Amino acid sequence: MQPEESIAVRRPERWGEPMDASINDGDVSWLRSREPFASMDSDSFPRSIPLEGILRNDTRLHRCEPGEIIVREGDYGNSAFLVLAGSAAVIVKSLLPEQLGRSEVEKLSWTEALRKYLGRSRHPESRRPDQVTSGANGDSSNVRQVDDRPALFLQDFEAVLRRDRSGAQRPVTIGPGEIFGEVAAMYRSPRTATVIAETEATLLEIRWQGLKILRRDKGFADTLDRHYRQNWLTIHLRELPLLRHLPEANLNRVAASTQMHSFGRMEWHADYKKIRELPVQKQIESEPVVAAEGRMPTDLVIVRSGFGRVSKTYGASDRTTAYLGKGHVFGLDEIAYNSLRPESAPPKTLDHSLRAIGFLDALFIPAEVFAEEILPHVRRSELPESVSELVTTVNHKRLGGDTKHHDSDRREESRGRTDRRSADRASNLGQGDWKDLPSSEGQQFQPTGLLEFIVQNRVNNGTAAMVVDLSRCTRCDDCVKACASTHDGNPRFVRQGIAHEQIQFVQACMQCSDPVCMIGCPTGAITRDKDSGVVRIHDPICVGCGTCANSCPYENIRMAEVVDPKGRPYTDMDSGKPIRKATKCDMCQSQPTGPACVSACPHDALVRIDLTESEPLQYWLDRRS
């Protein structure tokens, strides 16, 4: 008897963990009857990722009460919100920090700082009652339970709405079928406005993975793209120094031709620990290629979110030469040269490859659009030196050898060169800038190895990483003691961490450029200060859930049980459990000295440094050689 012929089928793919495990078949059916899902074509989605599966796994239903803050200006998020019933109000005018449950950091004078130091409690992590909960003084708390979740409320929201409606900047009402927050969700950017529930409302929260799949429906994708292009794309393009002098008509034509692409996983921190253990070459090979070395450049790549690794092939391996972050461009040298080259000269191919480090979101401007719409308006100081010289030569020939104009071109180029290098970080950041950096012990740093080490361990994410020169550090722990004295008797870091040669990257909050710790906080207690960029915890609205600590890929946030100045522990009046708060480095924002750890180091061995750029670390190493 012949065996039956086997049938090959594709294994169905399912989500590992639903966003809301309580959503059932009835909820999914109800959602399918509402817009925009009612108009979606189920055939637009693969069988392994059906529309019903997205609604079941990538969404969460919320019932919001009037005055509840849904999203706050400046916060980060990875989800958008669809209004199903009721209405929400977009507050155009920025609200006061205290209205949003935040507290401003007051810079202490030397006298005040000394008085606070001398009057500190001898008990670690001590708090006054008003520092533990926003309702400690008898007022109605900003944080209340709605169903089974903590929610933050705007105090006197009706008065705020009345006052705003009477002014020039009126709040925008969002009703059923309208979506908000999709730009911040898709592109990992801060929320640009505060949205509150105007009436009792039912919202559907859609995480970014679901949004991305829902874009398979052309109508839904067109709506999101149209909204982004109408409201945000030209703003993002204008922020690029290369385009700051572009006429409005040219900018609009550039925007119309620009494409948007993402590479890698937005939730890169979930794989961080596993990926960092790979050998460097294996790690590089695992990263999605954005643009390949040796290929003809077809687009100018602008990094909008995340980081990219710039690498070059050496033999059978790849060597990291730079990394690019938000606002950096890739391929400018080659595209600009090809646009200006003499007919007899061959075109340039890409000299390096660009790969996504975990996640990278980018804008792509076609090379021909760059040549026609952008290049004629670019200041030579914004261009790579080789291309700038080519522009001068072309203009010199066009002017028939007019040395007066030629010298003027040279002077303009010279004036702008320093500003372009220090501020704009244009094309292929840092390539060729790294040289052998001698250590104080007479050894030679391996610059490429250091760059690869930084990227492999993702410390390029830090805007204020704690870096220690181990050749100068005597392990006296004065930095730790100073931190403890400033922060309730409990230091906000430990003097340990990964090291490369004599440079150690200490395990302290780096104030990340991509702060994944801020995503998922139920009350928005962890936020970035808009002036200093420091990521802070606002104790009165921190519910101690530990979401931020679990999300931090570097384990730089810790949960601590808090006590009053006499050492008596705070407990929850309902459950009797200890009150916990998230703790982390806050860069000693209130201290006149700045970071206490840096000020206390007697050997000048410690620095807080921005690693999202390669230049600051290079300058620090050069200065110490």
UniProtKB/TrEMBL annotation:
Record field: compositional bias (Polar residues): 131-144
Domain of life: Bacteria
Domain Cyclic nucleotide-binding: 65-94, 160-206, 242-345
A Pfam family of this chain: Fer4_7
Region (Disordered): 1-20, 120-144, 393-443
Composition bias, Basic and acidic residues: 7-17, 399-424
4Fe-4S ferredoxin-type domain mapped to chain residues: 464-496, 499-531, 533-562
Record's keyword annotation contains Endoplasmic reticulum: no
The protein's name in its UniProt record: Electron transport protein HydN
Annotated gene: hydN
